[in-house]
Amino acid sequence: MPDRRPKAIPSQLLEDADPTPIDIEAELDALARRYRGAGGVGLQILNLVGDSAEGLIKRLPKDIRNRLDRTTEAALGTAMRAANGSRRVVKDQPDWLNLAVTTAMGAAGGFGGLPSAMAELPVTTTVLLRAIQGVARDHGFDPESESVQFDCIRVFAAAGPLAEDDGTDLAFYATRVTVTGGAVKGLIAKVAPRFATVLGQKLAAQTVPVLGAVAGAATNYAYTSYYQEMAHVHFRLRKIAIEADVPHEDLVAGLQRRLSKRKIRQA
User: Fold this and answer.
1) Where are the alpha helices (DSSP H) in 38-178?
2) pLDDT for 21-41, tens place per residue?
């Protein structure tokens, strides 16, 4: 069976190639620090709204909680189509601009409470996906490739900025799945329940009385910075695997070990 894993853009690799050997241990140490720091803003969000991540979900109306998975799956599907289409007319933006755009949208969504927050959700998801695609491009991958689009959706399987994560979710990145015509759609269905929990926390924070607009801006800032950082970790691992000719699964395992050691020391 041919190797269907994402391939880096050859011309990009030629431009960016480093003649010195890759120090894999140092790279993994740096990625572990980046991974751990990705959710730092999340604690500030919880302090702002005065609740735990689990408690936020309970604030949502029962009917919203019951259909959140379906809503999220539809939002991811719409976001994939919109993000891919927009690449033809809007170039990739720097991380700071993506942060500014989603922060403004979060404030607008939170200002009107749950109805406006629900309307803002698929738009924010699209911008997040475009940001992830931009990170893939930065690391030398072609966002137009179906296999890279597959990996972009995989980034949404991360736990989210409000969750305590020891790196176990990285196992989802290491899973080998053959990329076929229906693979992206199937992956969206698998990722949706994970991402639904994350979006549920975001929606609940945006409905906090008085603080809705502030919490909406803060959550979108946290979520955008978090998923951009997760994308940098994910695609850097992919690029190291290609350039150093090391199995991607081994790199993921090495990163997991570093994250779990930090967890043990804190216990």
Assistant:
1) 40-49, 53-59, 62-66, 68-86, 95-111, 114-138, 146-155, 170-174
2) 789 999 999 999 998 888 777
d(CA 153, CA 151): 5
In whole angstroms, what is the distance from residue 202 CA to residue 56 CA? 8
Domain boundaries defined on the chain: 41-266
Those residues whose C-beta lies under 8 Å from the C-beta of residue 234, and which sit 6 or more positions away, are: 151, 154, 155, 173
- C-alpha distances (whole Å) from 262 to each of 29, 40, 111, 167, 258 are 11, 15, 39, 10, 7
CA separation for the pair 26, 19 (Å, rounded): 17
What does the alpha-carbon distance between residue 242 and residue 236 come to, in Å, rounded to a whole number? 10
- DSSP character for 21? P
Q: Please check the confidence at residue 11 and state whether its pLDDT lies above 80.
A: no
Residue type (1 letter), 251: L
Judged by phi (left if over 0) then psi (alpha if -120 to 50, else beta), residue 223 lies in alpha
Distance CA 227, CA 158 (A): 8
> Is-above-0.85 flag for pTM?
no
Largest CA distance in the chain: 57
For residue 89, count other CB atoms closer than 10 A to its CB: 6
Q: For residues 160 and 163, what is the distance between their CA atoms, to the nearest angstrom?
A: 6
Has residue 212 got a pLDDT over 80? no
The token pair that represents 173 in the structure block: 């990145």
Interatomic CA distance for residues 26 and 35, integer angstroms = 14
